[in-house]
């Protein structure tokens, strides 16, 4: 293929592209029998031809304390509870996949820094016989190490507000100046 044939083919392709976009073909790009100066057609880049990609929505960090470990099982437990609240119509819970759930142990050396950096904290409240004492000690430890002073009480479904949750909320507020938010039905 000669250089003129190649240039002619590129001009035809560029004209076709302009026509498809609704642009008019420039008069010098029309077919002629004589030699023409080669003009490089404007070819859109591959990136310009692809649809724009929306960056993923950033996840909201939720710092959770009070769990026995910091593995994926505990994260799934918290995520499942958020999903249950969302199913009950709690709009703030949203989609559990939108949360970046981070398990924090109460003896975390960087607790004070984490407390300042993140504003969403939760306390996982178990419902066994020793739960009140353990949770109160944990809240006390958080307070002593400049941890968060406002936490959402995450707990198993069907744990009534009266009893353990209300007592823990009152003790945290009165003795530790810590706000424990309850969302039990």
Report on the structure:
With 185 residues, the protein is α/β, with parallel strands linked by helices. The chain is built from 6 helices and 5 strands; from the N terminus they run ααβαβαβαβαβ. It has helices spanning 3-21, 46-49, 72-87, 111-117, 131-144, 161-176, and strands at 60-65, 99-103, 121-125, 150-155, 179-181. The protein has a 5-stranded parallel beta sheet with strand order 2-1-3-4-5, sandwiched between helices. Strand 4 (150-155), helix 6 (161-176) and strand 5 (179-181) form a beta-alpha-beta unit.
Number of strands: 5
Shape: elongated
| Beginning-to-end CA distance, first to last residue | 79 Å
Quote the average pLDDT: 82
Beta-strand content: 5-15%
* Sheet/helix structural class: alpha/beta
Brief account:
41% of the residues lie in helices and 14% in strands. The chain is of the alpha/beta class and 185 residues long.
